[in-house]
Every structure is written in C-alpha cells, then in structure tokens.
Amino acid sequence: MSRYTGPKARINRRLGAMIFESAGAAKASDRRPNAPGMAPPVRKMSTYGESMREKQKIKYYYGLGERQLRRVFEHSKHAEGDTGTQMLVLCERRLDSVVRLAGFTKTRPQARQGVCHGHFTVNGRHCDVASMTVRVGDVIHVKRRGGLTDLYGGNLAAFDGQAADWLHVDSERLMITVTRLPAKEDVTLPVNVQMVVELLSR
C-alpha cells in the first residue's frame, strides 16, 4: 500500500476522488469518471463498505500501510481534541506531505521519493524519513547539490497553486518554514474521517 505502483486512475475512479494527482491519472479519470467495471453498481454500498472506502482514501492519499494508519490512529486517540481531526492533521504534518503542500513537487509520491533519497534537510540535518512529523518552527531546505536546486526550483516556479497557509515558502532560498500547526480546515483530503474512526475503533 505504501508503495502502490498499479494504475492510479483506477484508484481515483474506484474511490471517487482525485487521490493521485499525476497528469495521466487526472486525464484518465476525467475520460472515464465511473467506477471500474462493466457497468455502474446496482446495489447501494453498505455502511461497512463506505467506511472501507474512506479508509482507503487516507491510505492511498498519504501513502500509508495498514500498520502505519493504525499507529496514527492510536496516537490520535491520546491527543487533545477530535480523534478524526487529529488523525488527518498528523498525516498533513508528514515531511513528504509538507514538501508537496509547499509546491516543491507535483505529486505526493514524487515528494516521498525526494525525501527518501535525502534531497532535503530539516533544521540543517539530513533527513530521509518521509513519515517524520514536522513541528512549529521547523525549517526544511533543499540540499544545495547536483541538479536538486534546478529540479525543485523549476517545480516551484511551475506550481500553479498556493502553498498551505501554515507554511512559509522562500522561493529564492528553496526553504519551507512551518509557521503553525494545520487545523481541520487546512486538511486537503475530502474524506469522512468519522467513519474511519468508527471502523478502526472496532
């Protein structure tokens, strides 16, 4: 699950959301928006089926395995506030998610690959752990070596969106600063997380 390499448009169509953002997946999803199969399903999906679908959204979107997701859930249960919101906030605070939200990459898998290959530093230290949770005040830099500055500088220049409000991006120095923790309204994935919480609580 954490390294899904199959047809991405198929996942987008099955889950009814733009989970994978690559151009090819987006084009294929637009061309065939219905779920995979010979025809649209006749029977209504059960509550359990809907809960599983929402859980799959989180797993594919953030690149989590089942054990990773349950670890995030257990951590969220002991945090202050709503468990579902805390789950999504923890996922948004992953280092690979921050790199994507800042506009340094075009997709989350690309961000994950860049982090795992050691293209970034956190507070001046080498980091190649995509699941690292960032904190307020953390500073993420693109390493000044090889063609990394050209790669990520080019991606940032071509980024047609807007960086997350809780991040400050310095395009000249290729630097990201975490100015605050994300809130519920900052979560980028449209998902019914309460159904996921109920499913994982069984």
UniProtKB/TrEMBL annotation:
MF terms (GO), sorted A to Z: rRNA binding; structural constituent of ribosome
Ranges that cross the membrane: none
Region feature Disordered, mapped onto this chain: 25-50
Domain Small ribosomal subunit protein uS4 N-terminal: 3-92
UniProt subunit comment: Part of the 30S ribosomal subunit. Contacts protein S5. The interaction surface between S4 and S5 is involved in control of translational fidelity.
UniProt record similarity statement: Belongs to the universal ribosomal protein uS4 family.
SMART domains: Ribosomal_S4 (SM01390), S4 (SM00363)
Keywords of this entry: Ribonucleoprotein, Ribosomal protein, RNA-binding, rRNA-binding
Protein name: Small ribosomal subunit protein uS4
GO biological process: ribosomal small subunit biogenesis; translation
Listed GO CC annotations: small ribosomal subunit
Function field: One of the primary rRNA binding proteins, it binds directly to 16S rRNA where it nucleates assembly of the body of the 30S subunit. With S5 and S12 plays an important role in translational accuracy.
Underlying gene: rpsD
NCBIfam families: PRK05327.1
Organism: Lacipirellula parvula
Limits of the RNA-binding S4 domain: 93-157
